[in-house]
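dude i think i finally got it to work??
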Amino acid sequence: MAWNLRSIGNAVRSTLRFLEGRSGSAPGSSGKARPAGTTAKSGQAAAGLTGTYPGDFRGTAKISYAPSPNGRPEPGEVVWTWVPYEEDHSRGKDRPVLLVGTSGRFLLGLMLTSKDHDGDPRRADDYVDIGTGPWDRQWRPSEAKLDRILQINPQDVRREGAILDAGSFSVVAAALQTRQGWR
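look at this
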């Protein structure tokens, strides 16, 4: 694995988050840390890593492509973060997400999947092909899910997976303009 300033910074941030979670154990507890954002009762992710999930983004936003190898998550980058399930925002899993813009203090992102949806005409407008990249260990072709816009706290980004090339990003941008009315 190649180490660069971005990966070292991400490792330091992950370690600090882990240590913050360990120091927050309550008196009389076992002292074992739970991941941030989990409940004592279930151990399930309650609402992301740093607090309550604000809900999926509704409305229109400006599409932005501004990737930069500076260690901060920015539109145009594929990152890994906790993504709540659509049917129950108190549960979810870690997944790759393409960042496409911002809204206030939140990043806006599209969930990626390696499952091919092109063969299903009922769902064809919900996905756009983005090709392959290092966000997938097996370099499988990926699709971005257009019908759900995630709001992501930048502190919840676990690691950066790659910068999506401008050509592939423009295909996603055009699809968002058509489907969501974004500018």
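The beta strands are 77-84, 92-103, 106-113, 127-131, 142-145, 150-152, 157-163.
im so relieved honestly
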